[in-house]
Each structure stands twice: as C-alpha cells, then as structure tokens.
Amino acid sequence: MKFLKFNEIDSTNNYMKENISSFENYDIVSAKVQTSGRGRRGNTWLSPEGMALFSFLLKPEKEFSIIEATKLPLLAGISTLSALKKIKDGAYSFKWTNDVFLSGKKLCGILIERVKDDFVIGIGINVANKIPDDIKNIAISMESDYDIDKLILKVVEEFSIYYKRFSEGKWKEIVEEINSYNFLKDKKIRVNIGDKVFEGIARNIVEDGRIKIEMDGEIKLFSVGEIKIEKDYYL
Fold it and tell me: What pTM, to 2 d.p., does this model score?
C-alpha cells in the first residue's frame, strides 16, 4: 500500500485523479491542509490543519453499474463510523448520504468521484481542528491529539472489510447496520430537488441506497445524490 503525505495540497482527490495511473487499490494520499477542498455538489469544504484529510483508491474487480456505485458513499460512511468507534466510542450516527455525525453534529464528510471504472474516495474528519464559531452549532471536532495517520489507516482497513462483505453479497446486512445509525430517521426534513421543495418524515434507507420519506401518509423514495437536505429538525 502506497501512502503519500503532503503538508499542503489543493485537494487529495484532485491529486489522485490527476495521477491515477500511478496508484493501486487502497493506495492513500493525505494532506495536513487542503487549499481547495470540495464537498458534494461542488461546495467548498474547509480543510484546516488538525483534520484527517485523505483520499484512497478503489479498483473494483468488475465494472460497477450506476446503482452499485451509489452504494459506495453508504459503504464509506459505515466504514468510517466503525473505525471511529474502535478508536474512541461515542454517539456516532450516519447522515444520509455521506456524512458521519457525533453527538448530533457533523464530524466527517465524504466525496466519491468516479474515474472510468475506478473510484477516488475522499474523506475529511474533524480530529484536532478548531471549529469556527459560526458553525459550532452544526459541526464538531474530536478535539484530541489522535495519531491521524493511524486513524486514516484504520478507516481504509475498515472499508476493505466492509467492501469484502459487500462483494460477498452481504449488502442487506450492511444496510441494516447503517439504519441502526440513521441520523435522519423519524425526523422531519425539508428537501430541495431543482425548484421543488418537499417536506416529510425520514424513514429507513432501502437496499438500493435510496431513503424513504413519508409525505402526507405516502412513502416516497429519494435517490442518493438526487437531493439536498436543506434543514433537519426534531419533531
């Protein structure tokens, strides 16, 4: 396994994508600081020193369909959550589609990008970085001097374990585990799709990666990557 470390880089995902021919399965690129970190939908992702900022490569044995590919953020999420629990137990949860929460606040974000038949899995975890005052109500840091390299290696190790289970046809079991940490379940949420706004009660994530939302007594299914959660609040 190759593990490249940078003090500063524009984006670990970008670096891996631009040099993908030189990387093998589960090779890692990490950085102390990212100057152009990105979240989903092109959003800027703050990447100060003290975070675990890294990307690793997944080279599937066979070509993934779009449906199979949409399961990867869920797989990366539960792998990261599992790794964090093994390092320090806590009130972790998974917010569909690609965030890990601690005590009800965002701890980790995930961005997966496809390059032909391969996938670059980018992860940012708040470890020992200071959370800006204006987002302290929605974000959290582990606020401890964990060995970041060991944490990164543990996440990739857990992903390899979950991916093996996934490849062996155990996805249904994995989804059940993910739902046991489902942050959105039974919360009223507002969803934007284009110029349309929907409101309803979030329920379980189903096997194809979509989430159930109950609206006016009916269950609707929303696809991974199709929607943006605008606001979460307890009933």
Answer: 0.90
